[in-house]
Specification:
Residues 9-190 form the Glucose-6-phosphate dehydrogenase NAD-binding domain. With 484 residues, this protein is an alpha/beta fold. It contains 14 helices and 15 strands. It has helices spanning 16-31, 51-59, 69-80, 92-106, 127-137, 157-168, 186-196, 199-202, 227-252, 261-273, 398-401, 410-420, 429-447, 469-475, and strands at 6-11, 40-45, 82-86, 115-120, 145-150, 176-179, 210-218, 283-289, 312-317, 329-334, 341-348, 363-369, 373-381, 389-397, 457-460. The strands form two sheets. The chain has a nine-stranded mixed beta sheet with strand order 14-13-12-11-7-10-9-8-15, with helices on both faces. Strands 3-2-1-4-5-6 form a six-stranded parallel beta sheet, sandwiched between helices. The structure holds 6-O-phosphono-beta-D-glucopyranose (BG6). 6-O-phosphono-beta-D-glucopyranose binds next to loops.
């Protein structure tokens, strides 16, 4: 349930994440009357600025494209809820100062129960000191305290364990909300319904019917100024190990016994534990080069000129359990590709041979973005005086099916869940542990820990990826039917 009398403290209030995601999401919730009653928002960062400057910065990202007067009025109201404090991230007095500010807001509350939600929109280097100082200096004495943190959660198994154990010294698992914003996406949430509320799909969801599964993330732009951050992490840590693996776990887990968050997360962890570490031979790496007037990865000034950091990766995961033995799950992600698309493609097996030969396979496509859709490729008799099977589509495009469709922003949905204390769509500690176990060996190889670093294959900016990709996915049984 939603707690009244809540203060949200946004650390890193002048940073990129806060501006692009946290504030717009808080405003989106506020505009729709979904924030708790008597909510306050306190921005906190190192930058010294007055309230006017702070409001100017945070509201410049709130969308009001048509200059709707109602939205403008809401923005003014939103500003009134929101104050700013500057301070350091490593010293107790700064946090004591913040705490005095929080108390000055809370003393106006009617009820004597105060709730505080601490949102750390911060670089990982300060996660640990901030979480410690907040716990020691800013913890509400009556009411609920929650802390929201975002990836990167370390860069391999050991660093993740270190980070987790450090934060755990101050915060319980129950108080901690680890964001993977893919879990807030409408279509990712739909996976549970699609799989477990449809017998027609559910009963074919295994190795007997499914040949292979592709989970694909494509972005049409490069690092564009984010090269400094990106080069340290690479595409596997940026997208595969978290966002795509989360999608895979919901796609493959067993039916949870209830909607309780621990029941769902138990099933996710169970299926992830059945996946061994990725092997080198099951991997293709790529790095984009300049083409069509667009710069290559190495042309980004914030990237070292000899970087071998992959901006594209395709890896194959295998799940050793009765449902999935032998089915390859291909996870692929890349920057600077030919289009923006995130989708799951479940390719079914060939139909029994005999009367039908060489016809397309069934494919269930779940398009996460853009334009949410689920469609099933089916063979149909071509109408007329013939007996030819042609590939057709049963198409559920959300925009057409749901009139007045309003898909909430992932961050809105997650922040609301955190206010309510619902952990279902947040990442549990043991989920992270097992996710890193799957990816750490391949990452150490890419980092050069086992000898020389592998060289990614070049691919032109705006292309479909490295040239060996088609051959690679075909070798795991994927048969291209129509353009994808
Ligand atoms: C972030 C990555 O986690 O997800 C980015 O760090 C990526 O590199 C982004 O662009 C993609 O998110 P979305 O919601 O735009 O698909």
């Amino acid at each position: 349930e939603l707690k009244d009398n809540t203060i949200v403290i946004v650390f890193g209030a002048s940073g990129d994440l806060a501006k692009k995601k946290t504030y717009p999401a808080l405003f989106g919730l506020f505009k729709n009357g979904l924030l708790p009653k008597d909510v306050h928002i306190v921005g906190y960062a190192r930058t010294k600025m007055d309230e006017a400057e702070y409001h100017k910065r945070t509201t410049s990202y709130l969308k009001n494209p048509d200059n709707d007067p109602e939205v403008s009025a809401k923005i003014e109201e939103f500003k009134k809820l929101s104050t700013y404090i500057s301070g350091g991230y490593e010293d107790a007095p700064s946090f004591q100062n913040l705490n005095r500010h929080l108390e000055s807001i809370e003393k106006n509350y009617q009820r004597k129960e105060y709730n505080r939600v601490f949102y750390l929109a911060l670089p990982p280097s300060v996660f640990v000191p901030v979480s410690k100082h907040v716990r020691e200096n800013c913890y509400a004495q009556s009411g609920v305290n929650r802390i929201i943190i975002e990836k990167p959660f370390g860069s391999d198994l050991d660093s993740c364990r270190d980070l987790l154990s450090n934060v755990k010294q101050s915060w319980t698992e129950d108080e901690t909300f680890r964001i993977d914003h893919y879990l807030g996406k409408e279509m990712v949430k739909n996976l549970l319904v699609l799989r477990f509320a449809n017998v027609a799909l559910g009963n074919n969801w295994d190795k007997n019917s499914i040949s292979n599964v592709q989970i694909t993330f494509k972005e049409p732009f490069g690092t564009e100024g984010r090269g400094g951050y990106f080069d340290e992490f690479g595409i596997i840590r940026d997208v595969l190990q978290n966002h795509l693996l989360q999608v895979l776990s919901i796609l493959t887990m067993e039916r949870p016994v209830s909607f309780a968050s621990e029941d769902i997360r138990n099933e996710k962890v169970k299926v992830l534990r059945a996946i061994p570490p990725i092997e080198r031979k099951d991997t293709v790496l790529g790095q984009y080069v300049g083409a069509n007037g667009k710069p290559g990865y190495l042309d980004d000034d914030s990237v070292p000129k000899d970087s071998v950091c992959p901006t594209f990766a395709a890896t194959v995961l295998w799940i050793h359990n009765e449902r999935w033995e032998g089915v390859p799950f291909v996870l692929k992600a890349g920057k600077a590709l030919n289009e923006a698309k995130v989708e799951v493609r479940v390719q079914f097996k060939d139909v029994t041979q005999g009367i039908f030969k060489d016809i397309s396979r069934n494919e269930l496509v779940i398009r996460i973005q853009p334009s949410e859709a689920v469609y099933l490729k089916m063979n149909t008799k071509s109408p007329g005086l013939n007996f030819r099977a042609v590939p057709t589509e049963m198409d559920l495009t959300y925009k057409r099916r749901f009139s007045d469709l309003k898909v909430p922003e992932a961050y809105e949905s997650l922040i609301l869940d955190a206010f309510k204390g619902d952990h279902s769509n947040f990442v549990r500690d043991d989920e992270l542990d097992v996710a890193w176990k799957i990816f750490t060996p391949i990452l150490h190889w890419i980092d050069g820990k086992d000898g020389s670093r592998p060289r990614p294959s070049p691919y032109p900016y705006g292309s479909r990826g490295p040239k060996e990709l088609d051959q690679f996915i075909a070798s795991y049984g994927y048969r291209r039917a129509t353009e994808d």
